[in-house]
Amino acid sequence: MGAWQPLPDGLPSEVRHFVEQLRQLKDGTGLSLAALGARTAYSKSSWQRYLNAVQPPPRQAVAALCKVAGLAGAEAERHVVRWELAVEAWPRPASANPAEEYEDDPTIPWWDRLEEPAPPSPRPAGRLLLYAVLLLLALLLTAVGGAVAFG
Asked: CA–CA separation, 48 vs 44, rounded Å?
């Protein structure tokens, strides 16, 4: 199992240590990347990116790997703490737009996504209030009409 490609040079020590720990955890399961992908919500290619330090894994991926490896409690929490340290030190993509590299990848963590502006309001609030008042009047007239008609 231990035939991993070398980690990139210049990787921060927190990231290197974290990825090495993840690799050991994965190797300890005895699963291939495809089998690990089948047992978690993350694909084989996602695990390849995480375990080769190309992309930081989501916190939930670390938790899923811990669960598959049979870790719980304090042991699993240590990996989450390592994840937090690694994410802070993880090198950012070199492109001007970090989201370009993982644009359609649902596994990209929230910290690497660009904030998208909120869509413009389709109607001004005053118009919505007018519609609400008109609807209320229509309901009121229906109720009064029904009470008069049925006694």
From this structure: 6
The label of the residue with tokens 């802070």 reads: 88
Tokens matching residue 8? 């990139």
Q: Please give the model's pTM, rounded to 2 decimal places.
A: 0.60
Exposed/middle/buried for residue 136 (C-beta within 10 Å: 0-12, 13-18, 19+): exposed
CA dihedral angle for residue 13, residue 19, residue 20, residue 22, rounded to 10 degrees: 150
* 26 and 47 Cβ atoms separated by less than 8 Å: yes
Question: Whole-angstrom Cα distance, residue 147 to residue 151?
Answer: 6
Both tokens assigned to 118: 């909120």
Q: Mind listing the pLDDT tens digit for each residue in 38-79?
A: 999 899 999 999 999 989 999 999 999 999 999 989 988 998
For residue 122, what are the CA distances in angstroms to 28, 64, 136?
Answer: 53, 40, 22
Q: How remote is the C-alpha of 50 from its chain's centroid? A: 13
